[in-house]
Amino acid sequence: MTDTIKTDVLIIGAGPCGLFAVFELGLLDMKVHLVDILDKLGGQCAELYPEKPIYDIPAIPMVTGQGLTDALMEQIKPFNPTFHLNEMVETIEKIGDPLFRVTTDAGQVFETKVVVISAGGGSFQPKRPPVPGIEAYEGTSVFYAVRKMEQFRGKDLLIVGGGDSALDWVLNLQPIARRVTLLHRRDDFRAAPHSVDQMRKLVAAGKMNLKLGQVTALEGENGMLSGAMVKGNDNETFKIDCNTMLPFFGLTMKLGPVANWGVKLENNLVPVDTEAFETNVPGIFAIGDINTYPGKLKLILSGFHEGALMAQKASRYVFPDKRVVFQYTTSSSSLQKKLGVN
Predict the structure, then answer these.
(1) What would be the CATH architecture of the domain defined by 128-249?
(2) Which end of the chain is more exposed for a tag (fewer CB within 10 A), N or C?
(3) Annotated binding site for FAD
(4) For residues 179 and 154, is the Cβ–Cβ distance under 8 A?
(5) What CATH number was assigned to the domain covering residues 5-124+252-339?
(6) 34 strand-pairing partners
């Protein structure tokens, strides 16, 4: 067993909301450790769409998921948070007032005065298409997410699906792939109309293929795809030559051990108050997509706001005898000193 780590705040989830919470907690002198089940920082942004543009971060007209993660990491540098990646929190036990003992599946034990659940919607996993033997190709020629577009340069690419993810990657990868074929079970798409229009123009210009039907079998050896057998809407079977496939059948949310942490749940979400985004357990907060309250919007900017108010209440648990004085980073010399700009 490793030694117990003592900290002011433990954040579960290192996505954008968890990262920005480090900043708000740091301004109030709280030391933070973060645990994330992924092997990288940035949560869903980095895992599912690292190169996909995000357009609704205030004052930043466009940023990628990875770009936002990088910027947040730069912003929280002054506070030196400690990250524990590839670990999943298994238990949270109340051992004081306020004090929690938190254990992970790696055997790490934390003692912390405040716990912040910033776990997105839990653990998101792509839905696997019902194609026999697809597991043999996963990670070599079948991928459920695009992490680096360059990986698909010059490929004969089959993209399966009819939602935003499928259409987005058709449009993003068509310029660099050798050939792109989009396969959907019907000629009707759930994606943004503009994306569908762009896709149809590429098809009309002969720059990509659109096929209707469903994959029934894969062909290839040693994990390397050579083609996909498809049952068309006319019940005829045909083959699509491809060496890479991207199936976008949506995501399955697995709540994981959150259900065992002693906090109240409501439709697989954590209800919180809107004063400090605290759960039914004093000292345990929930910010970002994992929480729910009247009027909740699942936006990154909403999670940033929730983190700021959470930090104000958290400081009362960590420093019960200290009066919290609200200050602005623009005018407070003490805050600027913490940020290294004074």
Answers:
(1) 3-Layer(bba) Sandwich (3.50)
(2) N
(3) 17, 36, 44, 49, 89, 124, 289, 330
(4) no
(5) 3.50.50.60
(6) 11, 83
